[in-house]
Amino acid sequence: MKSALFAATAAIGLAIFGQAASAAEPPYLDDRTDAAAVIRSLYNAISRHEYARAWDYFGDTKPAKDFDSFAKGYDGTEAVEVVTGNAGSEGAAGSIYYTIPVAIRAVDKAGNGKVFAGCYTLRQVNAEIQAPPFSPIRIDKGALKPSDKDFGEALPESCGDSPTIPKKDAELEQAKKAFLASYAGECDPEGPGGRQIGDPTIYNISYKPSDDQPDKTARLFEFFCSMAAYNESSIYYFSDAEQSVNQLQFAVPELDIRYENGNTEGKVEHVGIIGFRTVDRLINAGYDENAHTLVSHDKWRGVGDASSTGTYLFRDGKFGLVQFDVDASYDGEVNPETVIDYNTAP
């Protein structure tokens, strides 16, 4: 076990040459609360060239024959990035053993990086049976090997009985990236319930295309944008199996509304449509998974007696406006009239 761990550590340290003087030193981190924290702390110590601290994260089985050999193994390592997966655990003989997937990217003097991946096993002796000095979680063994994958893709899915790491959701990441690039400075940084900007609600939509092709699944990403006194806006991105993630735009009618005596408090004499425009967000909207509709309800004032409501039906892979209702009277009552109705269209 000792020789295997030393070989893995040597491969990490000795395979990296040079030292980048320009690299910024990371903030100090010494966290031994769980297996992942210990691994992050180990590579934080190595990145800061604090090899005595790094040495101390290992238990009885050390990664080299002595400390000097261990430190020398990292002579050429300037900095190390690390990611960890889900840790599995198992109790045995007064100890808990943790297995955890790890991937690192070690950087040399010229800024070139090499990627390594594998598994670590850590041990925590039962705190109740220990005598001073107390021993926290320590690394028992590890084996990282060079990886030909990019750093972001190199992390093993699992180690031993550790839970499998969910695969990266490329469409979700693409939708988040697109939303934040366009709206990070425009939308509120936090939504209802403390949800952070860029954290969408996701809907999976199964449908049968009209051209007799096999059933397909599309995804709708709903991003909260802003909240005012009585209206909340959302922005939508959409993808299916045949296209990348795209932002949805929605058609809304341009209204010609006329009131008695030209006063909005008076009787509504006419509601007509003089054209259409597109908008990039919906107001007080929600997706109905049974009806396959997005319904937007825009209150013109807080009591909600004057408003407009658009219904967008998902049909053959696209959302289209099928109904638009307008309540133009500021009379204290909810009494909309339908100005667009395409619900009977095939």
Summarize the structure.
This protein has 346 residues and is an alpha+beta fold.
Report the mean per-residue pLDDT as an integer. Answer: 86
Broad shape = elongated
List the helices and strands in order: HHHHEEEEEHEEEEEEEEEEEE
Q: What amount of the residues lies in strands?
A: 35-45%
How many β-strand stretches? 17
Separation of the first and last Cα atoms: 69 Å
Q: How is this structure best described in words?
A:
The chain has helices at 2-14, 35-47, 51-56, 67-72, 170-183, and strands spanning 79-84, 88-92, 95-107, 113-125, 138-146, 201-207, 216-227, 232-239, 246-247, 250-259, 268-279, 282-283, 286-288, 293-299, 307-315, 318-327, 337-341. Strand 15 (307-315) and strand 16 (318-327) form a beta hairpin. Mean pLDDT is 86; it is low at 1-23. The strands form 4 sheets. Strands 1, 2, 3, 4 and 5 form a 5-stranded antiparallel β-sheet that branches. Strands 6, 7, 8, 9 and 12 form a 5-stranded antiparallel β-sheet that branches. A 5-stranded antiparallel β-sheet has the order 13-14-15-16-17, with no helix packed on it. The protein starts with a helix and ends in a 5-residue tail after the last strand. It contains 5 helices and 17 strands. The protein has 346 residues and is an alpha+beta fold. It folds into 2 domains: 2-153, Nuclear Transport Factor 2, Chain: A; 171-341, no CATH class. The radius of gyration is 30 Å and the shape is elongated.
